[in-house]
Amino acid sequence: MRHWLNLLEYEPRELAQLVALARRIKAGDDAEASAALRGKILTMLFFNPSLRTRTSFEAAMLRFGGHAICLNVGGDTWPLEHRDGVVMDGACSEHIREAAPVLCRYGDLLAVRTFAKLRDAGEDAADRVLRGFAQHATVPVINMESAMEHPCQGLADWMTIDEKLNELPGKRFVLTWAPHVKALPMAVPHSALLAAAAAGMKVTIAHPPGYELNAALLDRAATWCAAAGSSLDKTHKWREARRDADVVYVKSWGAAAHYGDDDAQRSGFQEHADWIVDADHLKPGALLMHCLPVRRNVVMTDAALDDPRCVVVDQAENRMWTQVAILCHLLRQPH
Predict the structure, then answer these.
(1) Cα separation of 180 and 300, whole Å?
(2) Which end of the chain has the least Cβ crowding within 10 Å, N or C?
(3) Distances, alpha carbon 295 to alpha carbons 115, 180, 301, 302, in Å
(4) CA dihedral sign, ordered 48, 109, 58, 71
(5) What is the DSSP string of 150-207?
(6) pLDDT tens, 299-319?
């Protein structure tokens, strides 16, 4: 049984096929989606708040004849423990060893959303909560964002660029860091990077010193770029990078060296406040992207977000279409 845990566990060819399927479904060729989702139940567990993720998955299921159940952990459910061998005499009333298989008996797919703790980079990289659910589930598990990746967002980003630019190999994709008011995980930039690399784009990551992404994901992205005859570069010169880009993808993330030190994270953001993205940083015809939510006039200016080159709403819509494709893929495999 195959899960949808991250982009790393799929080949670029497979990801491209999912993007193509999503585009066909969006264009009205929805017979496969209706056949796959009709009468099916998706159970969603949220350890963190959501606007687009919850709504887009519910809409995807309902639009094609299925049903979605949404549970907020600690609110709609008991607090859940994921660690093995612990004495559960604290806040958690239930272990995922029981919760996961029970929920799988009620539905056909199980989706989980859980963020990085931002206290220990190695612990976040292990993605233990998501991996724990996949270990104990008896139906396919979907990552609705975890400590390390947001593969649903990454696939929607690829679809959006594909719609706008068509032939992607050789196009310049710049993932640019931006300031924020608090530390944020690296999940979205990781998946955006992998999606662009899998699509064969020339990828540049622009960030201040000390804000490097996970080394293993960087290596995989570089391998995918090389296989496509492209390249992966890193720079601290954001002005030059943005000016030459066909796609400027904006995202804030914290420095791994400052994990657990909120004051240091805030100081770093303040030090690099000039990395805010403005409309005049883009060349004509470029795309400006962000996963949302976005803090106006902190991460991006009003002028940038209101510019016609900004496609954040298109990205958000395409979450639904790519997730339909993911759901179809998972449901048509033998369990």
Answers:
(1) 10
(2) C
(3) 19, 8, 9, 10
(4) negative
(5) -HHHHHHHHHHHHHHHS--TT-EEEEEE---SS---SHHHHHHHHHHHHTT-EEEEE-
(6) 999 999 999 999 999 999 999
Residues 51 and 87 in one domain: yes
Instruction: For residue 116, give its domain range.
Output: 7-149+319-331
Considering the domain architecture, whether residues 144 and 213 belong to the same structural domain is answered as no
Same domain, 45 and 17: yes
Residue written as token pair 């690399």: 197
User: What DSSP letter does each residue of 63-109 carry, written as one string?
Assistant: HTT-EEEEEETTTTS--EE--TT----SS--EEHHHHHHHHHHH-SE
Question: From CA 159, how far away is CA 57, in angstroms rounded?
Answer: 17
Contact yes or no for 115/145 (Cβ under 8 A): yes
Please tell me the pTM assigned to this model.
0.97
Q: Within this chain, do residues 175 and 260 fall inside the same structural domain, yes or no?
A: yes
Asked if 121 and 261 sit in the same domain, the reply is no
Tell me the per-residue pLDDT of 213-266, one tens digit each, with 9 for 90 and over.
999 999 999 999 999 999 999 999 999 999 999 999 999 999 988 988 999 999
